[in-house]
Structures are given as C-alpha cells and as structure tokens.
Amino acid sequence: MSKIPTTIWLIEPHTEAKHEILRKYLDAWLPIITRWNGRVLFIDGFAGPGEYIGGKDGSPIIAIKAVLEHKANIKSQIRMLFIEADKDRCEYLKQKVSSLKIPSNIGIECICAKFNEMLTEIFKYIDEQKTKLAPAFIFIDPFGFTGIPLTLIKRIMRNEKCEVLITFMFEEINRFISDSKLWDSLIEIFGTDKWKQVISEKDPKKRIEILHAIYKKQLEKDAGIKFVRSFKMVNKINKTDYFLFFGTNNITGLKKIKEAMWRVDKSGSFQFSDVTYNPNQLVLFEMGPNYNQLKQILLKEFKNKSVSITELKNFILTRTAFRETHYKKQILVPMEKAQPPEIKIECAGKRIKYTFPPHCIVKFL
Asked: Which of 107, 144, 213, 324 is 20 to 30 A away from residue 270, measured at CA?
C-alpha cells in the first residue's frame, strides 16, 4: 500500500475485507467488554478521513456505527480516540463525525497527531498519575511500516484488558528490507534484527514465512501477548500485501476474532485476495473448512491418548486455525460411528449417544 496524496480515495476490496473483520469483531467485543467495565476505550491509530470516494465508511465511522447500531443496550462510558497525522484528513474526519448524533455516554475525539507520539504521551500521563489504561481495543492500520514500534505494542499489552489489531505492511518491508537507511526503523518495528536473514533469501514464499514468523514470535515473546492470530491480504497482482495481526490475552477475544475471520474466509485459510474477488459473481458453492485436516491434527496430537472434551476444545481454539465449534458433529461423531470405532467416550453417569458433554473423556484409538 503506497502513500496516497489525496484526502479521500477509492476503497480496495481487501480494505473492505479488513473492515468487515473489524466490524464483526467490534459487534462481539462491545457487549462483552461493557458488561463488566463501566468505561472502555477504542483507539484508531491511523484513522484517515473516515470516508472513501463513493461514500463508503472508513474505520472510524465503522467503529462509531458498531456502537450506535448495536442491539445490546450499552450503558458504559465509551471513549473513542481517532488519531490522524495528516491535517486535511483529520479535519475531514472531524466534519464527518460532527454530522452524527452521538449519545451522551460516548465521547469522541479526533486528534491531529502521530500515533506513536500520542500514545507515548497518554502512557506518560497514566504513569505519572499511577493509574491504568481503561480496557481498550486499539486498531493500528498505517500506510507505511514506520511509527509502530514494538516497544509501544508491548506497553499497550501491559494492560491485561487491552487488545490490538495491527496491519503489518509485509510488501513494503519486503521491498525495502535491503536498504540500510531503513534498518533502524525495521529494528524498531520488530524489536530485533533477526529479519536480516531474509535479505539473502531468494524464495518469495520463504521470505513471507520468515518475516511473518519473526513478527508473530516478537508479539508473543517480547510484547507478551498470549494469543496471536493473523489474516493475509493479497493484492490485485496476486502478491501478499500485508497481514492483519490480532493480539489478546483473553481466550474469549481469541474465540471472537477467529469467528470474525472465518466469516470473511470460510475456507479457514485466513486469507482474502483481490485477484479472486468478484462482488457480481453468483456464489454456487462456498469452500468450507477442511475437517479432515483438523482430524489429522488431532490424531497427531492425541493418538492412543485420552483427553477431556474441555481440553480438546481448548486445544482446537488455541493451537489450531479452526474454531471451537468445528469438532463434535464434524470430527467426533463420524469417528465414533466408524466401524471399528476410532474413538472411545468415557463419561461419569449417563450420556446421550453422539453427544459430548464437557466432563467426558475422549480416547483416540
């Protein structure tokens, strides 16, 4: 994604897919986070003007509408910060927001500033006041690959109830990785110089795998994020443009982002491609999850072992790309019906056949 000189511009299909993930996750996040917290925070770190040519909503308006249109009766105080460094886009966004009717429990501020500088200032104030950041969802969606230091991500995630959705600009990083003038910026982004191993790698697929793996590991190990998932965006020339990285320390957040990602890509490959996208084509069938793949993963992990239904569900949710809803009817029922059976179910007390209560044990034969 290159720099765009205009205030507003045409939206691309992969951006719409990204926004769909954002909206679906916010729809799930809002009632959960506001149920237990009287004050919550949404930050859009590279907010843009809030609108595209043709009138389609940008991420700030999508986030506001997620609150305004939610079917839940949200009574918590919601503060929404939209940070945009470009003055013209920031002013455009302010005008866009001013046209909306906002309830008294929602506070909205459009800030004309750089994301990293603004967040650093916020955290400095929080530290001086010896207080904590409110439970927050922070959307970090830059045009380029600078301005999102790993140290800042780490500082955000020191707050237990914070979550991040980060656009990792693979294509630009990959294209300029040999330019030594940018190495300081790359070290800042990754929090390490391990990315240098990509410079001598000639295989494009391996370059993608290596950079993705390094950034994911840095989010997990250095930034201390317990659960990290990613979603690949492919551009019009069939090249990987960027990855969306989601980070949370809450297993419910993991569950909900996987649900949002599966809705955008029903194959479970966690990928969207501008090349194959055609909004006018009638869908004759949709590629579904590869349940046999999940079965093989489970057999590799649990063959000749016993595991509780609860543990099995947790393994699928946290250690695979599949959802926690993908294993009973799709995997366990056929395995129990097989002749001879491929699993044995042991339960304390009565059990209806082909059901799998949490207290039961599955033995993979």
From this structure: 144
